[in-house]
Amino acid sequence: MSQSANHLVPLASWALGAGVIAFLATRSLGLMPVLTLMDRKSWAWEITAFGFFLKIAQDNRKKVADFYWAKALVTNAIAAFGGGFLAPMIVGRTPVPLMEETFVWMVVVTWYITHHIPHVSDFLGEVLREGPAQTMLTIFFGIFKTQQIVGAVELASKAVAAEDLMPKSAYFPFAVAAPLLCGFVGGCGGTFLPPSNGLAPIEGGKVWNIRAAFFAPLMYIVATRFCGVELLTAKLGICLFRIAGDLLPSQRDAVMDSLTSALYTGTRVRSTPLPTVVPVKTA
Prior knowledge:
By secondary structure, the chain is mostly helical. The chain has one domain. Helix content is 68%, strand content 0%. The protein is built from twelve helices and no strands. Helix 1 crosses helix 8, helix 3 packs across helix 6 and helix 8 packs antiparallel against helix 11. The radius of gyration is 21 Å and the shape is globular. The N and C termini lie far apart (61 Å).
């Protein structure tokens, strides 16, 4: 990128970020409908979804830079909504991207403009890596990720309630295990794909996306099923939790480390795996 173009990056980042936020502030139905992805009367839903997929494409840009185009596109799609496929399939429902195929085409478009438009792709990558534009995409990511998690929780709850092949549980008035599992998978399922990844994403226990996908469904179910919190209010809380965690990584890690330390202390579950013992043959 030329020196003159480098000077334009901060200005373009401010213009893009401030422009989109100003547009949403004047055209949307309000802050809560935007943060809960319920505003379908303005362009808030489309802008948020497109921003999410654009951030996914940018985050994976270097990873797929040397891939054959088909592999790069599929890798990008897996990162975008791997959980959106896996979570519904766990409870025998249609994957979300197949019901709302706008998402599929947004993945294709954001992947293409991230990699294959001369000059524009490189400049856009610089713009979206700093300043207000980066913050804007992070907010959109948190909003859409919340939608994936909460949507998977409610989808699983409805699927279990509607099942008539066998009697419901005699001990639980409503499903808990299936919504927790589907919420977790909906929040981070793409990290386990392709299957060759195995359980590597949860080996260290420090990845924020994994932690958030674990705690968010748990907090949402406790709030809505046991504390009587209204569904959209709980969803808004999960959204703010996700956004704050993404924007404030050092504070987030301090809080999460305190929570997990208390969990390990109370349950005596090891915070780190036991050391691996490798047998050594002696002569």
